[in-house]
Amino acid sequence: MTELKVGFIGAGAIANVHASRISGLKNVKIVAFADIVESKARSLAEKYGGRAYRRWEDMLEKESLDAIYVCIPPYAHRDEVIVAAEKNVHVFIEKPIALDLELAEEMTRAVEKAGIVSQVGYVWRFTKGIQRAKEVIERRELGRVGLFAARYLGDMLWALNTDSWWKDRTKSGGHVVEQATHMYDSLRYLLGEAVEVHAYETRFATIGREDWTVEDAHVAILRMKNNAIAAIYSTPCAPAWLQGWLIVGEKGFIELPDPHTIEINYRGRSMRIREEVDGYLEESIEFFNAIRGKGETRAPIREGYKTLKLTLAVRKSMESGGKKVTIGE
Question: Are residues 117 and 259 in the same domain?
Fold first, then answer.
């Protein structure tokens, strides 16, 4: 089997997460890291092998790459995906793929025009709980689904006393766009597209901190194309990391206390299944298999575009004080 050569654009924490997984795969070789802080690129190159670059443009020009992992902050996206597509280099990109739909569309069209394989890092699509929920819904074991509810609690207050880009909404997109995006992606993955949203945000934990422009909490009510309704809420200001889902249909309901565990409740019987897999590893294995012509990816870049479009609509409603925002095709 031909060895696939991989380069990284960005050498921060999430790059390390992905590199640690793919470094153990057969017939996949990391050959380069690029980061504007070249010492970070050197550090990961020393750890996983390959050469270090300051400019990703130089890496794409000098290295013979089969694939790149784009692991940079949301605000840093420019034309790296477009250039990679033009060079016929397959793209794995972390979420969100951009902070505005114009750039996201340019990226998506470039990938689709080139016919390259793409995968967006919506890792929960690869967990057993979410996957089983999708199978139950698609087999119509719940009948018509009418209600979807999800929560995302995180602890990002450590960023208050740092120079982290995350606490600046213009750089991260905010909690909805950068982190709770996983919940909106799971909504789309399980129930399809939303048609309208009302959303609200509040400040309660960071009042008086002008350097923190991310929402302290948000709640959104959505109407789906299939006429189901959904409620999603989140906060980056909790002293814990908790996620959960509730999906109710005419014949029963599903609860997921975390992405790995599913409780299926029908009328008169129930079951609980827990199986934990490494989603980061699974999404990369699928990506490389697709490059080799073995199946397709479940989160191609068009999916990243659609989830970004949804989260930007949620943010627009939040910033308008809860006014209805319609989500077009």
Answer: no
Of the chain, the end-to-end C-alpha distance in Å amounts to 41
Whole-angstrom CA distances from 29 to 3, 5, 8, 82 are: 7, 5, 11, 23
Split into its structural domains, the chain has a count of 2
Confidence class of residue 328 from pLDDT cuts 50, 70 and 90?
confident
Residues contacting residue 94 through CB under 8 Å, at least 6 positions apart: 14, 69, 70, 71, 72, 120, 121
**Residue 115 and residue 131 in one domain:** no
Q: What is the pTM of this model?
A: 0.97
Is 320 found in the same domain as 185? yes
Q: Which residues of 209-219 are buried (b: 16+ CB within 10 A; e: fewer)?
A: eeebebbbbbb
DSSP 25: S
Could you read off the pLDDT of 222-256 as tens digits, one per residue? 999 999 999 999 999 999 999 999 999 999 999 99
Instruction: State yes or no: cis peptide before 96, omega within 30 of 0.
Output: yes
Q: Which residues contact 253 (CB under 8 A, 6 or more apart)?
A: 142, 246, 247, 265
**Which pLDDT score is estimated for 1?**
65
pLDDT at 329 over 80: no
Where in the sequence is the domain holding 258, given as residue range(s)? 124-277+299-326
Residue 205 lies in a domain: yes
Residues 131 and 8 in one domain: no
**Do residues 11 and 87 share a domain?**
yes
* CATH number (domain holding residue 175): 3.30.360.10
**Pair 44, 134 in one domain:** no
State the Cα–Cα distance between residues 154 and 177, nearest whole angstrom: 14
Strand, coil or helix: what is 253?
strand
pLDDT in tens, 11-25: 999 999 999 999 999
The DSSP bridge pattern shows strands 325-326 and 252-258 to be unpaired
